[in-house]
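Morning F.,

Quick status update on the modeling queue. The single chain you submitted on Monday has been processed. Sequence for confirmation:
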Amino acid sequence: MRKSLSWRTAAVAGAALVTALVVYAGVRLLSPGPSAPPAPSALRATVGVGQVNVQWPPVDRADTYVLLRDDQVVYTGPQPRGVDATVTKGRHTYRVQASTNGVPSPLSEPVVVTAGDGWGVGAPLVAMLPKVLPAAPKVDGPWRALHCNWQIRPGRNELGPSEHGAGTIGMRYRLVCGANLTVALHAMWFSSKDAVDGYLSRITRDSEALRWNHGSGFWYTAKNEGYLKFDDPKLALIVLGVGRTDHKTTRADFLDLANELPI
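Structure tokens below.
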């Protein structure tokens, strides 16, 4: 009798548990999830030097915003404003989407602007050296009124016998700059530490190692060239070359210019 009673008790308990799970699942399915916030509105876009600033009123219940330029995400965050520092010259369309707990709103109405010259994908390099490099092409830089142009040119470690060179891309971006026809500066932004070492491998074998105010340097006597690296980990993928435009740079000239740089 006890065994029969225990079996019946267990069966009843099991049935009750199944019923409870079914009811719970039904409630979960029928209960509405978090609703989407309204679409952002009243976007205001201001064109600056090498960038576009976009602002909009906060959206009720929104915890995240996504700013898109021509369907490319240029900002994600909680603030109702974003800066597009990688914009290029020309006509661009901006939209914003808000979200609440991951539930997205409709896209805002577009706002269209015409931007001036900018560094595009090279903007992060300029942002890392804001006291040296100009904010945009054809604009005076903060150091010696430096002017720069971006240059498509493979690094030494990217060259090879095939049509694709060495088969790897080591340099993200290169700026070639000059100041008052007296000072030349190359700013090179690499993809990895291996790419930096690969580029400098020949120089480091045949050059004199030295120190400057913000890191290590290499003076390449055979070509009157000097290259600078940074101790700051945030600048570890940047290499600078500085010298005189008349190609008569001396070791002393190189160090003077290096230590003058406002990093």
